[in-house]
Write a structure and sequence with these properties.
Elements: H1 2-28, E1 32-36, E2 67-71
Antiparallel strand pairs: 1-2
Length: 98
């Protein structure tokens, strides 16, 4: 009876520790968002429009329909020479060459 109780308590403690660790891990990952027009050619994260399939397929630097994942809230502060605003965009855009 004592061994069963001890095994139960050890299992309960392990479950609690695992849950706490998982919650801490989830909280430490910052929210991320797609930022268009900031990746260099061949360094986008995924789906860079027609003729491309996924990561690493963008054809030119700062391609307006190629995106990178960045920490939420930072996209529009990253420089993008082809963007109409000069910074990354939360939606794809048509490149403006300056």
């Amino acid at each position: 009876m004592n061994m069963t109780r001890n095994a139960f308590l050890v299992g309960l403690a392990a479950t609690a520790i695992t849950g706490i660790a998982a919650e801490a891990s989830a909280q430490s990952k910052p929210a991320r968002e797609k930022c268009f027009g900031i990746s260099l050619a061949g360094h986008n994260d995924c789906a860079a429009g027609p003729g491309t399939s996924c990561a690493g397929t963008s054809k030119v630097n700062y391609q307006g329909n190629a995106w990178k994942l960045v920490p939420k809230g930072t996209c529009t502060t990253i420089k993008s020479p082809t963007s109409p605003t000069g910074f990354g965009q939360l939606k794809e855009f048509k490149e403006v060459r300056r």
